[in-house]
Structure formats: structure tokens, C-alpha cells
Write a structure and sequence with these properties.
Organism: Hibiscus trionum (Flower of an hour)
GO molecular function: DNA binding
Helix content: over 70%
Protein name: Programmed Cell Death protein 5
Distance between the termini: 59 Å
Number of helices: 5
Number of strands: 0
Largest sheet: none
Family: Belongs to the PDCD5 family.
């Protein structure tokens, strides 16, 4: 004994949800191309700025870090770019200075690992 109004509301709601999911995943191909192009251009500008403020050794080290931990490399790049934009970096960053920056970031983001051991208790074990 379903109420016809309630069933109609459910149907409309399902259609709205399906339309939202479809609209989010299917964009106009022109919009997708323009978004990809804008993303590519921003990445090129970012890389050009980094090449201007990093020495070749520091760039190589950052590239190796990006292979292993892309999010950490991105964070270091952000720190370097921010420092360059505020005028804190006046000469190219050497590999040694990059290492010191990495060490500073590591001390700020060090995670504490905690191991807890939970023993299973059998029915036959005594709790003496």
C-alpha cells in the first residue's frame, strides 16, 4: 500500500540524483579541452618558475622526490614558490639549501606511529 504521491516524489528525487551524477561526469568536450589546456599552462608556468629559482642539482633531487612522494614534492614546490614570490629567495636554491628545507618540512610533518597489540582471549583462558 504505497502512496502514489510518495512514489512520485521518490521517482523525481532519483531522476535528480541521476542527472547530477551524469552532469558531473559528462562535460562539454570544449570545456574539458579548455580545462586541460589551462591546467597544462599553469603547470608549465610553475615548472618555469621552479627552473629559475632552483639549481640543476636541486631540480634533480626534487624530481626524484616527486617520483617517490608526489604530494611531498608538491608541498616543497609550493613553499619554494611562495618564498620566491615574497622575495625571501634572491639567488638560486642549491641542493644543500633544498635539503635543509626538506628537513624543516619533515620535522613539522613527522607522524607519530603508535602500535597497539590486542590479544584475543580464548574461552579457556583464565583471568587470574
Amino acid at each position: 500500500m504505497a502512496d502514489p504521491e510518495l512514489e512520485a516524489i521518490r521517482q523525481r528525487r532519483m531522476q535528480e540524483l541521476m542527472a547530477r551524477q551524469g552532469a558531473g561526469s559528462q562535460q562539454n568536450p570544449d570545456q574539458q579541452n579548455s580545462q586541460e589546456e589551462a591546467k597544462r599552462e599553469a603547470d608549465e608556468r610553475r615548472q618555469m618558475m621552479l627552473s629559475q629559482i632552483l639549481s640543476s642539482e636541486a631540480r634533480e633531487r626534487l624530481a626524484r622526490i616527486a617520483l617517490v612522494k608526489p604530494e611531498k614534492a608538491r608541498g616543497v614546490e609550493d613553499v619554494l614558490l611562495r618564498a620566491a614570490q615574497t622575495g625571501q629567495i634572491v639567488e638560486k636554491v642549491s641542493e644543500e639549501r633544498l635539503i635543509s628545507i626538506l628537513e624543516q618540512i619533515n620535522t613539522q610533518t613527522t607522524k607519530q606511529t603508535k602500535v597497539t597489540i590486542q590479544r584475543r582471549r580464548s574461552v579457556l583462558d583464565d583471568d587470574d
